[in-house]
Amino acid sequence: MLELAKEQIAMGQSAADKGQALRLLADCLVADGLVAEGYLQGLQDREEQGSTFLGQGIAIPHGTPQTRDQVFATGVRLMQFPEGVDWGDGQMVYLAIAIAARSDEHLRLLQLLTRALGETDLAQALRRARSAEALLKLLQGAPQALALDAQLVSLNLPADDFEELAWRGARLLQRAGCVESGFAAMLQQAEPLPLGEGLWWLHSERQVRQPGLAFITPQQPLRYRDQPLNGLFCLASLGAAHQALLERLCEVLIEGRGQMLYQATSSRTVLEVLGGEVPADWPSARIVLANAHGLHARPAKVLAQLAKGFEGEIRIRLLDDSQPAVSVKSLSKLLGLGARRGQTLELIAEPNIANDALPVLLAAIADGLGETVEALPEASTEEVLVVAEPLSAPVPGSLIQGVPAAPGIACGPAHICVERDIDYPLRGVSPSQEREQLRAALETVNAELQALVQRSDKAIGEIFITHQEMLADPALMDEVEQRLGQGESAAAAWMSVIEAAARQQEALHDALLAERAADLRDIGRRVLAQLCGVIDTPEPAEPYVLVMTEVGPSDVARLDPQRVAGIVTAQGGATAHSAIVARALGIPAVVGAGAAMLLLAPGTPLLLDGQRGRVSVAPAADELQRALTERDQREQRLQQAWASRHQPAVTRDGHAIEVFANIGGSQGIDKVVEQGAEGVGLLRTELIFMAHPQAPDVATQEAEYRRVLDGLDGRPLVVRTLDVGGDKPLPYWPIASEDNPFLGVRGVRLTLQRPQIMRDQLRALLQAADGRPLRIMFPMVGQIHEWREAKAMVEQLREEIPVADLQLGIMVEVPSAALLAPQLAREVDFFSIGTNDLTQYTLAIDRGHPSLSAQADGLHPAVLRLIDMTVRAAHAEGKWVGVCGELAADPQAVAILLGLEVDELSVASRSVAEVKALVRQRDYQTARALALEALQQDSAAAVRALVEHY
Ligand code: PEP
Ligand code: MG
């Protein structure tokens, strides 16, 4: 997405003419690596087709569809021309915004600019701006329009007092997207203003996203501060957006027409009096926009011109969009809609011109507004009615098939953790009473935390100790005290302070502090629940099966393996966060079991089989017994596996495979070796970067890598270079947001665009090696040039820092890399197959998709075929292949990967002993036969069934 930043602005430029200005802009885009040289031609061609002059001294030069492939990265560069450049027809440009974009991303920029375009003398202000900051302010700081429409008017509400009306007003504004959830509390602190005729006014500027006005009237007349209370205006104030409305309201009141507002029985009357959004009963018509690049400047100009031919008001809005309708006659407002091809426009016209105007405008839009348009695909005329089946809890005896996420059998009562919304009063009874309630709630929560500290192990206990410290933080309590003094309820005061503190933490853009924000909210909620008497279902006394929607990062700490026997989640797949966490903690888990699980009665006995992905609800006694016997046998097997964890993994007929560990940093490296790993097969270095508030420098990284190599004591270390971007951004590394981050600038694509970061990391790695076996691999390689460029960087550094035992390879996680394996294998030293991403890209299923990821099974024959191709290509060139995705630890997959002749498996360290033991039970020749048969299957389920019977 295109956003504006001051670093993109070059102030005080001059150009003799438009041609020279375009060259300057193109040079700047090229120098910053956004486009190739040929993009200049695109800028020139585009101007030939039609000027990109936008109005108010601004032009937005951009390329043509033919030059889109010259764009390396989406971005903009701005140049101020204080002396002006004639953009044709005497239209002077003082600010040119050159856009490098492959698609219609410039529409978003237009949307952003239109607020500024509404300003009357912007051109001169842009010309005179002295700094990039000032210029940016001019572009972004123009006031937003005040939201005031039917959804913001609520009449005859059954409310008992002023507070309740204010609360309802805040709710309306929140629902309309004007304010954040904390706005209600802000409003309660504001000083109410009587307007006369029983109308009152309240406003706040805090927690406001977009200016908006709500109007509410009570069902029966109320009194407030000894005056009538007939209606209340709640303003979410931002800048001067409400000025015009306020003037109008004053006029209404001076003319003594206030009763038209508080006696109104329809929102339409209120809006007519106040000049709000167009009443809903004006004639309207809808049409789907077919222009390939949406309603951009040229077609918008045509539409506005056409509308100006009609005397009267015509408005337009995007259907399915919360933005209010805008005047069709305003070019800037039209552009502000950001309408794209395929979106439905609704035109609304004053009744006296509607019959004439609407057909003309509709026909013009259908004709493409001066552009040739390709017809939209026929939409089905039959309305598709999706009837959602009402969910009900699974009945006793049902067997639910989910996704196997962490092996093991577990049983216990269900502990259902679903967060519920808690409503609370905003005003308190009296400060002393509220203070007392809060004190009692804090004391209870503190005692609960103390109990948790006592029964948790040290690491988890420390988290609860931190929570206790937060509860006792005097700074928080001072603020709460102040609010109580102003009449807020204990709950409102507590929640506003907690929310404000959490936001402050988040604003620091530090991953660790952001975690603290989650902790704060967590603790905030615990206290709120106490205050409101909402009893979260108590944890069962015996070890239980935790049932949640999804296990998020802030839940991880609470997963005490002593208490949580198993995990069932409603959403998620085998590579989802919850699954990885459960495996790392050794808790049996089934994920993606469906939302009905959340409806189970607390305490319902559950039996889960994490290996087969099954959950039995209230199982029969004999089923339970069988499962428990199996669990005991597995326990025994694990104990045996543990005893022989340091033995190599060799099949019964003598075929050896290496078993390595996946880690995220140097902490716990000793444990890795202790758990039997023969090396590290995947060091996810992004976790090291994420643990720092800014990119760690070479020395910091070198120390970290050294610790890992020291801990490995001569065993090999396979390091993956930084794998961020797309869905896992680094907070301190701004990356333009993308529509499809999984298909965007991520992994090696990103680091190649930031060569300095990559070079620093490689330098730190080479310096840390000191003769020890180091393997470096690059993530998300999809093209051979990416591998070659990355390799060249290492080779260059190697001339400076000699390394004795170095191998370079790539991760195979993009299908193109597997398909290209024969070519790549000639150049790489090894491949490591990232089955998590390889599965997601092969099956086109987002690995974290709430409902689909359950099908993202790495044992799908399509994925197995890619693994097979990769191994065969590598072996033909004498290179080795590892598998480091979650599939490597799946007990049903081990024999197949062995049979596909993979040379190394890299798994969570606690799975090392088990995987080794599974290999030892196998016969290599049988595994070969199993793998060959698996390749012939037509689904993952068929492969799993095959393994069961082998
Ligand atoms: C993979 O994609 O399989 C992999 C190991 O990388 P990550 O899970 O870190 O994306
Ligand atoms: Mg990956």
UniProtKB/TrEMBL annotation:
SUPFAM superfamilies: Enzyme I of the PEP:sugar phosphotransferase system HPr-binding (sub)domain (SSF47831), HPr-like (SSF55594), Phoshotransferase/anion transport protein (SSF55804), Phosphoenolpyruvate/pyruvate domain (SSF51621), Phosphohistidine domain (SSF52009). One of its GO terms (molecular function) is phosphoenolpyruvate-protein phosphotransferase activity. InterPro entries: HPr-like (IPR000032), HPr-like_sf (IPR035895), PEP-util_enz_mobile_dom (IPR008279), PEP-utilizing_PTS_enzyme (IPR050499), PEP_util_AS (IPR018274), PEP_util_C (IPR000121), PEP_util_CS (IPR023151), Phosphohistidine_dom_sf (IPR036637). Gene3D superfamilies: HPr-like, Mannitol-specific EII, Chain A, Phosphoenolpyruvate-binding domains, Phosphohistidine domain, PtsI, HPr-binding domain. It catalyses: L-histidyl-[protein] + phosphoenolpyruvate = N(pros)-phospho-L-histidyl-[protein] + pyruvate. Coiled coil: none annotated. It is found in: Cytoplasm. It comes from the Bacteria. Residues 2-142 form the PTS EIIA type-2 domain. Its cofactor is Mg(2+). Keywords: Cytoplasm, Kinase, Magnesium, Metal-binding, Phosphoprotein, Phosphotransferase system, Sugar transport, Transferase, Transport. Its main location: cytoplasm. Pfam families: PEP-utilisers_N, PEP-utilizers, PEP-utilizers_C, PTS-HPr, PTS_EIIA_2. It is an enzyme of class 2 (transferase). The keyword DNA repair does not apply. Its EC number is 2.7.3.9. Residues 282-372 form the HPr domain. Belongs to the PEP-utilizing enzyme family. NCBIfam families: PRK11109.1, PTS_I_fam. This is phosphoenolpyruvate--protein phosphotransferase. It comes from Pseudomonas shirazensis. The gene is ptsP.
